[in-house]
Amino acid sequence: MNKQLYIYTIILLLCVTIANAQDTTPTPTPEIKDTQKVEPDKLKGVPEIEPNYKSDEKNLPDLGRVGVDMLDQKPLALREAIKLALENNKDIEVSRQTVKSAEFDLQAADGFYVPRISGQTYFERATSANINIFNPTQISVTNNVTVGNLTYQGFVRKYGSNYSATLSNQRVTTDNTFSLLNPQYISSFNFTFVQPLRRGQKIDNQRRIIEIAKKNLSLTDTQFRQKSIEVITTVQRAYWDLTFALRNLQVQRDGVRDAKEQLEHNQRLVKEGQLAPIDAVAAETQVANLELSVYDALDSVNRAENILKNLIAVDKNDALWGMAVLPTDKVDLEIPNTTLPESLQLAMENRPEIEISETAKEINEVDRTFLKEQTKSQIDFVASYTSSGISGTQNPNLSSRFGPVTLPTSVTGGNLDSIGNIITQRYPTLRFGVAFNLPLKNKTAEAQIGKNLVEAEKLKTQREQLEQSIQVDVRNALQSLRTAEARLRTAAVARENSQKQYESEQRKLDAGQSDVYKVLERQTALMNARSAELRSQIELNKAVAELQRATGNSLKANNVEARLRR
Question: pLDDT by residue (tens digit) across 300-357?
Fold first, then answer.
């Protein structure tokens, strides 16, 4: 089949050659002054083009941004954006509440050492069977007792001591005819002091709780600063992304402007007969394609702006959502001049993760100190002093039964007389001694210490892993910064060269040494180079923000104080 097709082709070529040789009359070339007026049949050998071609002007829709009033603009500096984010960001607010909660935990633990006053007062009426041999005729005895007690209790934090002072007062009436005093007033004052001699002297459970609460407060404050650094870095990225989106939108619009100018230029060349009408169609297609890029860039602006607003707006009803945010900071930031050793040292000093690891280690040490204390024998010095008082009115039933009875004046009188006996220490009691608890082997405490030591080794390993991870983080951030600088320089050179190539190609086209497609290609390359240069600058700014985060320097670099104490 292929062989036959080859033979037919040769025969056809021979026929055409013979026909041309017989027709020796030259075909005059028509003079084309206006290609739009030339009839199609006069353009032999030229591709047919619609002679009366005219482009339809199509006005593309001017898309706005959903929910945004473009006339209501909000100029926004990066520092202001960071301030709004730290004030309104929901994660930051949660961190604030966590710090406040830790403060209340510390207050609650510390409240144990606040002296306290307790007491009670009540009336009691008690009836019991009478078993008194001297009064066998009385079936029961009824006592009415009014009691009032008051206790003051306190602690000595430094030594683990505790003390209490109790004042007790009672009034007793009875129908017992053999009672010497009726009514009877009984008072007493008791002071007790306990001092641990071994276990609990240096640290006890309550002091351990307080120390851990202090560490946790420091920990939550560090975590708050860590969250602040994360928010600052996120805001920086969002801010520069919006800056790029807005400036890239302008780059795309400039590209459309240049494409329209090129279209007008091509149309003039068509009228002059230097270009075919199809070349104007190519330029118009370029305009349409670039206008499509404008709408894509506009969509990117809207998305980037919403991301930034989500970080800095108070809530969904904030008026900021209806405004057009305009970043005002310059894009050419000052690049940190730092070395790898300096950055690593800065990271080890400032990274919150290091402080968090150190706090975890300190809490582990507090637990170990307490657990070691629990392995000691419990030996406490205990001392108490009691001063009692009693007074009352002589029971009149005694005289009727036993004749005249005279009681000592020290026990007769009213309630004040009973209290007076306490003050004068008429009936004192002193007691002191030692209380001890000696376990033969405290396996529980020893096992807890062993677990604590294992946890300490685990924390040590995690610290080493953390430091290595931070080193990788800093190295990557510094490398990204250097790479971004190089990319920006390269992108600037590429943009300058693209500009020169585009202008050169335009001159060639005017001189008839190029075609419109190469011009359009150079035009597209120039627009892409402009966008790439802008992107490289923004990526450099984001690399600066990333280096600040990696070294833990975001707060200082942005003049932010992120410690919360209320």
Answer: 999 999 999 999 998 889 999 999 999 999 888 889 888 999 999 999 999 999 999 9
Burial class (CB in 10 A: 0-12, 13-18, 19+), 371: buried
pLDDT of residue 22: 42
Question: 210-230: b or e for each residue (b if 16 or more CB lie within 10 Å)?
Answer: bbbbbbbbbbbbbbbbbbbbb
CB 291 within 8 A of CB 253: no
pLDDT, position 117: 94
User: Quick one: tokens of 92?
Assistant: 């930051």
* Kind plus residue range of the DSSP H or E element containing 464: helix 443-510
Q: CA–CA separation, 30 vs 42, rounded Å?
A: 7
Distance CA 239, CA 327 (A): 7
Average pLDDT, whole number, for the chain?
83
The enclosing H or E element of 127 equals strand 116-129
Confidence label for 47 from pLDDT (cuts 50, 70 and 90) = very low
| 91/223 Cα distance (integer angstroms) | 11
Give the tens place of pLDDT for each residue, 5-21.
Answer: 444 444 444 443 444 44
Residue 283 CB: number of other CB atoms within 10 A? 26
Strand 323-327 relative to strand 69-76, pairing: parallel
How far apart, in whole angstroms, are the C-alpha atoms of residue 77 and residue 26?
A: 76
**Rounded to 10 degrees, what is the CA torsion of 390, 394, 398, 402?**
90
3-state helix, strand, coil in the chain (%, to 5): 60, 20, 25
What is the spatial distance between Cα 2 and Cα 191, in angstroms, rounded to a whole number?
124
| Strand partners for 184 | 172, 392
Asked if 323 and 69 count as a contact pair (C-beta separation under 8 A), the reply is: yes
Continuous H helices in 313-438 = 340-350, 352-374, 397-402, 415-423
* Across 373-389, average pLDDT: 92
Tell me the two tokens of residue 81.
Answer: 């954006």
Cα dihedral angle (474, 477, 479, 485), rounded to 10 degrees? -140
* 244 CB-near residues (< 8 Å, 6+ apart): 304, 534, 535, 538
